[in-house]
Amino acid sequence: xxxxxxxxxxxxxxxxxxxxxxxxxxxxxxxxxxxxxxxxxxxxxxxxxxxxxxxxxxxxxxxxxxxxxxxxxxxxxxxxxxxxxxxxxxxxxxxxxxxxxxxxxxxxxxxxxxxxxxxxxxxxxxxxxxxxxxxxxxxxxxxxxxxxxxxxxxxxxxxxxxxxxxxxxxxxxxxxxxxxxxxxxxxxxxxxxxxxxxxxxxxxxxxxxxxxxxxxxxxxxxxxxxxxxxxxxxxxxxxxxxxxxxxxxxxxxxxxxxxxxxxxxxxxxxxxxxxxxxxxxxxxxxxxxxxxxxxxxxxxxxxxxxxxxxxxxxxxxxxxxxxxxxxxxxxxxxxxxxxxxxxxxxxxxxxxxxxxxxxxxxxxxxxxxxxxxxxxxxxxxxxxxxxxxxxxxxxxxxxxxxxxxxxxxxxxxxxxxxxxxxxxxxxxxxxxxxxxxxxxxxxxxxxxxxxxxxxxxxxxxxxxxxxxxxxxxxxxxxxxxxxxxxxxxxxxxxxxxxxxxxxxxxxxxxxxxxxxxxxxxxxxxxxxxxxxxxxxxxxxxxxxxxxxxxxxxxxxx
Length: 557
Known about the structure:
- Helices cover about 85% and strands about 0% of the residues.
- The protein is built from 23 helices and no strands.
- The protein has helices at about 1-10, 15-45, 45-55, 60-80, 85-95, 100-125, 130-135, 145-170, 175-200, 205-235, 240-245, 255-270, 275-295, 300-340, 345-370, 370-380, 385-415, 415-440, 445-470, 475-505, 510-535, 540-545, 545-555.
- The longest helix has about 45 residues, at about 300-340.
- The protein is globular.
- Residues about 1-20 have low confidence and may be disordered.
């Protein structure tokens, strides 16, 4: 009862306290957004020198890197099991109850639990490196084993590091959280590029060793992140309190929190890792099945896989990051309206979410598809016809994958986790059934076709259930989507015309520098065209409210 009263009393804030809380929230959002954006930019830009220094082995190296990272990303998801969010929630709760020592004890106990989990997960990845490499890389995959082992080191420390990040998040000290993420990316990219240059330009020229050092960079980056977190712990005076917490008012069992979090998080982990799981299926089936019907060597298969997977993933993941951001922004609001029983507001929000998604993603996907040649040239090389067509297919497919990331979270937050799991299972079964025949018939297009069909079914079922639960207006939603589609059409016309004109200036096969100008000028013209028509039709205000009006004024439209 006392706990409840304390929580209720903290909700009765003075205007000055409320303003301070708002400032903290805005500051935290700015730090997280800024760090995330810089990290994403670094995660894309590094590929230009890295791929160039790999020389004629660039495609094979990118595929090897991607295969290792797909397994690694899945291990990271499993090894953290939603603990950072749980830590943040509990730390905030005990600080609200004026029991900070309990928060210190909780973090200290969870560090022990997650350290054990990290050792287990890392050990599994290290000692199963051989079988995992054969699974995703085929029988001639010995070069993937050291890549897996190097990534196992990062899995070792990530779970415990995520506890400290969760602690800072619970204190709403987002600067420490954001700086740790940013420095992790900076250190990782510096190590990758320095090691690759040293090996490929100054040393042995062994591209497999260069890839292994590039994946080891994940572990080096996390060491940098850990250093930042400990710096902020020491600076804030919390490090000594974590080591020697004082007396507490409450009791807590870290293992119980771990068990309850695990029970809650499993559906989110499984469903949220769908794209990662599908990538692993693509790697393993393509590398193991293609030798049945072709005479390609192992390295030639790595090159082909880079065309439809590794090379495209580096860029499509940026778009999927936008979809994930849109989903994370709307989920708390959907949860709030659902719990409060505001059915009309819930229906409006779900319909609006679809419109906002299409308004963001459709022009991005179409624009990147139209600028395939200059974009591919900037990051990799002048593309062949096969590379271009596979890149366009993968970019267009990103719209569907991003839509999946928008439609499944509302089902889970509205207490339909089992249904979401059943839909995911059906999607996975369709993928597995179609995968082998699609590869045997369509070769490099096979994995993309199988993924497209399976996600079409999964997304359709999710949308149908969302409509059944919320009764969002299909008519209003479609009308909003039609507006974004029309604007995208205008944008596409401008991009095509500008690209044709620039083609006369730079020639039919422009190099990297010329491609930068083409992508910037044609893409910029298309982007401005989209914003101009959106402003004239009142869509900016509809999508962004007062911020849309402010944007319109800044653009003088």
